[in-house]
Specification:
It contains 18 helices and no strands. The longest helix is centred in the last third of the chain and has 22 residues. 68% of the residues lie in helices and 0% in strands. The mean pLDDT is 89.
Length: 281
Amino acid sequence: MQALQYAQSVADLFALPEGYLRVKQLMDSDTASLDEVADVILLDPVLTSKLLKLANSAIYSLPYQVESISKALLVLGKTQVYNLVLSIGIASACSKVDTSAIDLERFWEQSINAALIAKFLAEQCQLKPTDRYYVAGLLHNIGEMVVLNFDARQANQCQNYNSDVKPWQLQQSELGFTYAQCGAELLHLWHLPDSIVEPVALQHSTKFDIKNKAQLVLHLAVRLALANQHPDLYSTRQLVDPFVLELLNLTQQDIIRAIDFCNTEGLFVLSVLNPRISTIY
């Protein structure tokens, strides 16, 4: 089976919550007001609570508290709020899957670290909106959930990477495609914008193009997150091509600061997006 067939087979299970779909519809409308968007978000108390927690986190470093959805929309803007709603909706969709066959902590740590690192790097490279990179990082490994739901045995096998075999190499060997390719197909089915889907699909490509900075940022973020999560298996020097740093005009100090940022903020984001496993710390 191909990556698209896997994604299609679980599309109904991975349906995004109704609240997200309604918010997206309003965001796409030229006539919808911020008050209308706020009203829809407020219909979902869990979504409201999580959105305000994230808006007030160090991820945005706002100089004051955001106490209402209306204020969040005014301060952060529709795009950033939309991306926060999307990330919360995806976490909710993933909660429907039986994850007993994989290390769920590892999955979420990997996803959140890549998201935070991608956002930090985008800010360093002055690429906007930076939230787009955060969402791409959060979704970079969503294909694992697709495969897990379709065939738990295969997903379990794909966890057995080591210092000689990288995760995406093992996925290609076991499945005939990578989680990146499978995840991108699911994101297409969700009608997410190409600005998010394309970097996810190309995250493992080594055909580096200065014109495609989104792919370069995600490629780098995924590898830094992997090295940070598995220091016993990988080093940043082993995983990161210096040419990517050169194309993005980044230094080793930028890399260190990006990893520090994800280590500082990761647990908080984990507790908001997936409180099921945050209690293990």
